[in-house]
Design goal:
Among the domains are: about 160 residues, Reverse transcriptase/Diguanylate cyclase domain (Alpha-Beta Plaits, 2-Layer Sandwich), CATH 3.30.70.270; about 240 residues, EAL domain (TIM Barrel, Alpha-Beta Barrel). The chain is built from 26 helices and 26 strands. The strands form five sheets. It has an eight-stranded mixed beta barrel. The chain has a five-stranded antiparallel beta sheet with strand order 2-1-5-4-3, with helices on both faces. The chain has a five-stranded antiparallel beta sheet with strand order 7-6-10-9-8. Strand 14 and strand 15 form a beta hairpin. The longest helix is centred in the N-terminal third of the chain and has 73 residues. The relative contact order is 0.05.
């Protein structure tokens, strides 16, 4: 019974599909054919109209040829002067005729259509006659026209057929009327042209409007007194433009001649002739449409059967696709954890269903130094590390808790609780402890740490948006306090976050407007007490907040990526200044601090080479100061970058020595020419015994490795003397000079040069 029902359903679906295809095809075909019919029909009418316009222009030219013959005859000087002499009584009529007739016959014979000529004197009396001349009625009609017209045209039915009359004035050079010519032209050549122009199913008519006489190749003799109002219902005596009349069996186009508006050309077409091409064009689309409809029904019957059999499979695949889409929308593809959207919905649901005693903590985790590891080991290794971190964090997720990947190297952990906030602190400590164990990545141990920002419900916020925002704010504060820890959200952090945002925006503007400044602090040789180098230090004179120290914006620039344009600007300006000093005769080494993020960029070495080339500074006068953290986090990559920089001839120095890893093995392998002792070890000299021993040890180690040492933060003469006794090479600090502008440094160098 089930199989029978399924077969019946399939048959009904097939019938419905076939009927739908037929109906849809007929509708589409009808609309297409109707549109095509209108387009082709309009094209046929446009072609016919264009033909009428062309014929009208040709007729104008034919009539203008008659007019030109009349002008030439009337303008002949000798016969005009003879007529003037006759008018003045100086020549007899016989002499005039004898003189004029031979000279008039020449142009008349040149025109194949000229039938005859009648010349009158200035009083309108006949003086010369040759050939066929118009009857007196036609003469009177032409002579009655205003004398101001140079040429007067008319139409007459002569014995030999329809004729064209032209009355042409004869005037002397002063414009006085001497006489008038009446010239009669036959229209046989025009009728022949009309006959040649007529196509099958088309009839051409030339109508003389003043008398409504019609001339046509198919209707001879002419039909007089044609009633255009009956044949052309829409004609209202128009003398300009092309017009069309349409009835059941014909289409008529008519247009008055432009140069001879008394004449109108009428072209009459039968529907069968005019639109024959339309039906030929439409026949093929109609046949193709019918074939396509038949083929569509056949294909439907062949295709729908197996398709219907696969409906159940398609349904299953659709369910699987929906599940995959749900997975993509709500889960992170890399780690398999819920994504930010799912955690947001979970948080929103928890808040709506929260009981009075229920609390929640939202912990925002950010992996420390992940970007450096990702850039050093490659993105594939970074992805694998994120999977390992996600797997380790899953171990801390309870039944009511939620873990999600927010994006990049950030995770979110939702922790419901009912007790005191100390429970949240204990969870944070457990999460930090989970990162103490190294991660096994491609056969090597990778140490990771994390920083947490925590916001609490309902203490800090009662909406998902505010909880997320406050957790992010707390995370930023935790990073500012040294990473590898956690920080609960406090109300004053929002103000700090706003200030941080404003500071970042102002820093971008300062970079665009180049309102930052570079100060230089001299580095002095302890043996000669001469300036041997300077350290470039960036300063930010804010228009509203005054001078902002570097420790407030350098870290911010490293986080948001502004360190790259900022570092490039400092490097270029410092090299420009040092190159100028070098040209002035001051061979000073300029030291520029370089961020680890700058060094991790593959294009950094080529950037340094380009700056040296453009500024013209010899490479040996540029020193780049590097941090211990960068050198020893990824020693292999660091050594490769430093080797390329040394190949350029650039000097390298290890900055703030003693505050980081301080691995003697790495120092020996890197072979850096210079290291700088951090100011924290100098401030206790010479009284602090531990600082004295530590500085002595660093100097002895540097001497054994062939490295020169620069002591930072020397503020007293006792500190300088102690360093000299310990055989330190160079120092810098407030004792000799504070950081000063480029102009102040140049003034100092000039004074020292004058003393020398």
């Amino acid at each position: 019974m089930r199989k029978l029902t399924t077969d019946l359903l399939r048959q009904r679906i097939l019938r419905f599909a076939a009927f739908s295809i037929l109906l849809t095809g007929l509708l589409v075909a009808s609309a297409t054919v109707f549109s095509l019919y209108r387009e082709v029909r309009g094209h046929s009418e446009q072609q016919a109209a264009a033909r009428v316009l062309s014929q009208m222009q040709t007729l104008d030219q034919l009539f203008s040829r008659f007019d030109e013959v009349a002008r030439q005859i009337s303008s002949r000087t000798q016969i005009r002067e003879a007529l003037s002499a006759f008018n003045q009584g100086e020549m007899t009529l016989e002499a005039l005729q004898t003189f004029t007739l031979p000279r008039l016959m020449e142009p008349l014979r040149a025109s194949e259509d000229a039938l005859g000529l009648l010349r009158m004197d200035q009083l309108g009396q006949e003086v010369v006659r040759t050939g066929e001349v118009p009857p007196e009625a036609a003469q009177r009609a032409l002579l009655a026209v205003d004398d101001a017209a140079t040429l007067v045209r008319g139409f007459w039915e002569a014995e030999t057929g329809p004729s064209y009359l032209v009355a042409s004035d004869i005037r002397d050079p002063e414009g006085r009327l001497v006489g008038r010519d009446l010239i009669l032209f036959g229209m046989q050549s025009l009728l022949q042209w009309l006959e040649a122009q007529s196509e099958s199913g088309e009839s051409l008519h030339l109508i003389y409007l003043p008398s409504m006489q019609r001339i046509s190749a198919q209707d001879l003799p002419p039909l007089l007194a044609l009633r255009l109002s009956e044949e052309l219902p829409n004609w209202r005596g128009q003398t300009q433009g092309l017009y069309k009349e349409t009835d059941l069996d014909r289409v008529v186009f008519y247009h008055t001649l432009q140069e001879h508006p008394d004449w109108m050309l009428l072209s009459q077409h039968s529907h069968s002739q005019l639109y024959a091409s339309t039906m030929k064009i439409l026949a093929w689309p109609l046949m193709v449409t019918l074939l396509l409809l038949a083929a569509g029904v056949l294909v439907t019957a062949l295709v729908m059967r197996p398709l219907l059999a696969r409906l159940s499979d398609a349904y299953l695949r659709q369910r699987e696709a929906e599940q995959q889409i749900h997975q993509l929308i709500n889960f992170d593809r890399l780690t398999g954890l819920p994504n930010w959207l799912q955690l947001y919905e979970r948080l929103h649901q928890k808040i709506e269903q929260a009981q009075p005693q229920e609390k929640m903590a939202l912990l925002f985790l950010n992996l420390d130094r992940f970007k450096a590891i990702n850039e050093s080991l490659g993105h594939q290794s970074g992805d694998q590390l994120l999977r390992l971190v996600a797997a380790r964090l899953r171990a801390f997720v309870g039944q009511d808790e939620a873990l999600a990947r927010s994006g990049g190297d950030e995770f979110l952990f939702l922790y419901p609780y009912r007790g005191s906030d100390a429970q949240v602190e204990a969870v944070a400590q457990r999460l930090l402890a989970a990162f103490q164990m190294p991660f096994e990545l491609e056969g090597r141990e990778v140490h990771m740490a994390t920083t947490l920002g925590i916001s609490l419900f309902p203490r800090d916020a009662r909406s998902p948006e505010d909880l997320l925002k406050h957790a992010d704010t707390a995370l930023i504060r935790a990073k500012e306090q040294g990473r590898k820890g956690f920080q609960f959200y406090q109300a004053d952090m929002s103000q700090s976050s706003r200030e941080r945002f404003e500071l970042e925006a102002d820093l971008r503007i300062a970079l665009e407007q180049q309102s930052l400044q570079i100060y230089y602090q001299p580095q002095v040789c302890l043996a000669s007490n001469q300036i041997v180098g300077v350290e470039a230090l960036i300063r930010w004179p804010h228009p509203e907040k005054g001078m902002i120290p570097p420790d407030r914006f350098i870290g911010l620039a490293e986080e948001n990526g502004l360190i790259h344009p900022l570092g490039a600007w400092v490097l270029r300006r410092a090299c420009e200044d040092a190159a100028r000093w070098y040209q002035q005769g001051y061979a000073l080494r300029v030291s520029v601090n370089v961020s680890a993020r700058q060094l991790n960029r593959s294009a950094f070495v080529s950037q340094v080479a380009e700056v040296l080339q453009k500024t013209g500074l010899p490479a040996k006068y540029l020193e780049l100061e590097l941090t211990e953290t960068y050198l020893f986090e990824n020693f292999t990559r660091s050594a490769r970058v430093l080797r390329r920089l040394q190949q350029l001839g650039v000097s390298l120095a290890l900055d703030d020595f003693g505050t980081g890893y301080s691995s003697l093995n790495y120092l020996r392998r890197l072979r850096l020419p210079r290291l700088k002792i951090d100011r924290s070890f100098i401030s206790g000299l010479p009284e602090n015994r531990e600082d004295l021993v530590l500085v002595s040890t660093i100097l002895a180690m540097a001497q054994s490795l062939g490295m020169k040492v620069v002591a930072e933060g020397v503020e007293t003469d006792a500190q300088r003397q102690c360093l000299a006794d310990l055989q330190c090479h160079e120092y810098q600090g407030y004792f000799y000079a504070r950081p000063e502008t480029c102009a102040e440094l140049e003034a100092r160098l000039m004074r020292l040069s004058e003393r020398a």
